[in-house]
Amino acid sequence: xxxDLSGPAIHALLADGTTVRVRAVxxxxxxxxxxxxxxxxxxxxxxxxxxxxxxxxxLAADHACTPSGPGHRALAAELQGRIIGLAExxxxxxxxxxxxxxAVADGQHRRGVGTLLVEHLASAARADxxxxxxxxxxSENAEVLRLFSDLGLRVTRRTDGPETRCxxxxxxxxxxxxxxxxxxxxxxxxxxxxxxKPRSVAVVGAGRRPGSxxxxxxxxxxxxxxxxxxxxxxxxxxxxxxxxxxxxxxxLPFPPDLVVVATPATAVPTVxxxxxxxxxxxxxxxxxxxxxxxxxxxxxxxxxxxxxxxGPNCLGVANTDPALRMDATFAAGHPRPGTAGIGVxxxxxxxxxxxxxxxxxxxVSTFASLGDKYDVSGNDxxxxxENDGTTDLALLHLESFGNPRAFSRTARRVTRRxxxxxxxxxxxxxxxxxxxxxxxxxxxxxLTRQALFIQAGITATRSVGELLEAAALFHAQPLxxxxxxxxxxxxxxxxxxxxxxxxxxxxxxxxLTSDLVGDLLAVLPDGAAVGNPVDVTAAVxxxxxxxxxxxxxxxxxxxxxxxxxxxxxVAAATGDDLVxxxxxxxxxxxxxxxxxxxxxxxxxxxxxxxxxxxxxxYAQPHAAARALAHAxxxxxWLARPPGTRRTPEGIDPPRARAVADQWLTGHPxxxxxxxxxxxxxxxxxxxxxxxxxxxxxxxxxxxxxxHLGGSDGRVVxxxxxxxxxxxxxxxxxxxxxxxxxxxxxxxxxxxxRFEGLMTGVVVQPLAERxxxxxxxxxxxxxxxxxxIFGLGGTATEVFADRAAxxxxxxxxxxxxxxxxxxxxxxxFGASGADPVDLDGLEQLLHRxxxxxxNVPQLAEADLNPVLATPGGLTVLDARLRLxxxxxxxxxxxxxx
Length: 896
Fold this sequence. Notes:
By secondary structure, this protein is α/β, with parallel strands linked by helices. 37% of the residues lie in helices and 24% in strands. It has 29 helices and 39 strands.
């Protein structure tokens, strides 16, 4: 919508959770706008026009309906077909500034109507090149002055008599984004109250047949002990399962807060429309199989009437709060009350998580099966758990992301307060195809999704089983201070397996300090081997093992302890319970303990501890090691500062956008610009390039070679034609050419082989030796710009050694990008070699990040190879792809 206010309308939430429609004003709105002003009180008119002037109001209504363009934009907020707010701007003579005006209907103030409209208008203005809003207000108009000051934008005021002139800078910095997020969170929570804290629920589609989904949900609501009013809507029954039934919504004694729909797909749109007309504000649609027409009708009804929607094609929702006890699902049993929040797209995964947590004894705070996710999303769930006062562990299984950049900002905030665990679903092409088919949403590339998880501090597991194994540790044990693990075992073989598992998971088994070794030898039986692993032998007694663990968990050189036990006849004969030694005193232990019992049937259990709390017990050492590694990574993420965005010196974003626009004028469908345009765009961001010259004839190539040849005169010729992407694969590069004869021969060879295609050659000096790297940009359709870095040259595709982070990059993101690929030791100076120019490498990545953010026409950038040496960095080859920009503000408040 930003920059294209003639596009489709969007829906967004006001501060009280009400849904409004935000759209461009059209000429047909003239009568509505006249009524908007005509219904205003004299005082409201005076505040808007500085006088009670019906003529000024009429002229303002007419002006708002003039056709939109970069110099004039007008937006309306519409509530159930009635315009309740208007915001517009008109460009000033001073370049980059525009006059702002806002009007809100009587009775609609203090709901955030004006703020929402100005947010959307500011987004459109930025896309139009407007950097400042100017607004005049009466100095006594505290309400509109507060609106401007609370936007989160930089506002300066100048008072002149009874009037105040406000200048509003439209920079979209972190302060503004935080203010937008806070407003969005307030509105979102208000809209979700009827969904997760309903005072009344109606089930539509519950019949007399015992096997129906609707009847199962109705039974669940009854047997869970729901404390609110419960109804069924069924024209063929007066009561179902002891619950009063009514023929239609209009017959209910009052509008229910929440409606659960389990009808055939064909009936769902009609049910939604009737529920909306009755005043319902939340709906869960369990029904599956909606066709596109039915799906659109369902969503239209929900948006029109302000209904928050979970589903369709879902398992339901639950809130175990003892004051509510709502289980509106058709899972096998009721979730146990607790503090773990669960949000899933797949109902099957939801059932698996509910049953898995029940086996572990971990209770649930709220559960939502989001299904096809037409409305309520993972972002909504995060905000609910962040503010419900109960949830301290969040489990998410998402197959798609609607607004990943907003999700990332929310997740970064939430994960500072609680662990957020997910399953990295769709890692393969087959998995991504299945996810897209199953959820009817865009599947996401592995690199992109992993970048989101890493940057947001999300613990990503590879299966539901691994998720439950990690959840058990997070729920029951403190976080480790680091990655140093001590392995304790009563059987050498089990200790070896545990040690291997820890190292393979990225943990470290340090040598124990001499003082710790002495302490352990003093409490363990003769024959114990006090290395790491610590082999306490089969003869160890319960008290001896407990004393050993007490010393290990208290020592500052150990961050976590893995105890691998096997049952022995010795312990059975003496009556020693070695498991009891592990569980006897967690309250006094500083470091987490994970138990491994190879004979255990379940993959993970939680064992009650004598002094309160629980100890996770795993059937396999790899499961324990993975869980501890996840916990150690969370510790490291929590210890990191947020990171700082850097704006490199010497960049010219406006010129870059102009260069891109100029090229797109001649190529409206987009494509791959030639070397000159690519070089010019990189130059706008100060990205260092190897000297080059363009040659369209053999003589031009010879002259360029004479001019560009380095100290030894050697050059490179690269053929070019529109659309050529992979030069090496086409054998369109000739290297190490010395002298006129070789240059002429190489040019003739290229011209002959690519006759009818080649438009010229790029001549460059032969590069010195160094490390060849890849740096690039990909504009992901869903996630936005992604910065990619790794090993370059001809080995790029062979080794696929690369990392990625979502832009904008912070200094910490840049460091992670450089350190993550397997080739990183080459950059830092492996085997005594000098490190490459790391400062220059950081600068390059920051400049690419700025380019990705500031040049929306840039769809792709591939700098490969980038030659890195101790003396500096040089881009040897670059290809850029430009496309007409699709204006999109990822931080704009809107419903899906």
